[in-house]
Amino acid sequence: MAVNLGKYGIWRIARELDARLAVEIEKLGYGTIWIGGSPPGDLALAEELLDATTSITVATGIVNMWTDDAATVGASYRRIAAKHPDRFLLGVGIGHPEAVQVYQKPYDKIVSYLDELDEAGVPAEGRALAALGPKVLRLSAERTLGAHPYLTTPEHTREAREIVGTGVLLAPEQKVVLDTDPARAREVARPYIKPYLGLSNYVRNLRRIGWSEEDIADGGSDELIDHLGVHGDAESVVRAASAHLGAGADHVCLQLLTPRGEDPLPGYAAMAEHLR
């Protein structure tokens, strides 16, 4: 791997990231900042974060194939890679069908988009693919550095590693809540998780790894919320997230969930003490 992600990174929605926060995250020792959501194809935010820092990797999680053409994204990638060699990973994916009006033959779309990224000069080792199911996981191993699964558990990570094989990046996202009170933690986590439980690709994946219709319905059972948004003190949530590493992941993207508007930096600092 030319791009070094480290073992732990932070995943944060694009609108809640800026240069100041990036500098502090780098100081805390995290390996990667993942720009969450669907950052635009100009990759301006990625460049801003890289310009402000000196060594941390920046990755997109993910640029949406339906909304940003590969030629534009490829040109942005080349600009950033030339300026910050080996510090940027282009995560791409197709999102979910409910978010786009034209959403047909998603697998064919992924293949053609990767072909276009090849033509645009984005090397396989410079990109990762959002992947949940076996078919796209295998494609991530064949055509990219590896897979970036979202809204998953260590059980999915274990299965994903078996599918992609060795020597392929596996970088799952894990939501965490720094609160030792289960009821309060679920009150924080559920509003973040509930919208995904109405999206077909995430629902299929949760069913695939053994969650029932009852677990997924009505905003998610307490057990499901506790697995998708692990909670506890900083040491506990890092231990829970590290189960992905034990299951075969190379890197875990920590998405810290907080009450709306709360400064996340103290939480990142508390977790950082347990990452080494």
TrEMBL record:
Gene3D superfamilies: Luciferase-like domain. It is an enzyme of class 1 (oxidoreductase). The keyword S-adenosyl-L-methionine does not apply. Its EC number is 1.-.-.-. One of its GO terms (molecular function) is oxidoreductase activity. Keywords: Oxidoreductase. The keyword Oxidoreductase applies. It comes from the Bacteria. PANTHER family: CONSERVED PROTEIN, LUCIFERASE-LIKE MONOOXYGENASE. This is LLM class F420-dependent oxidoreductase. It comes from Prauserella oleivorans.
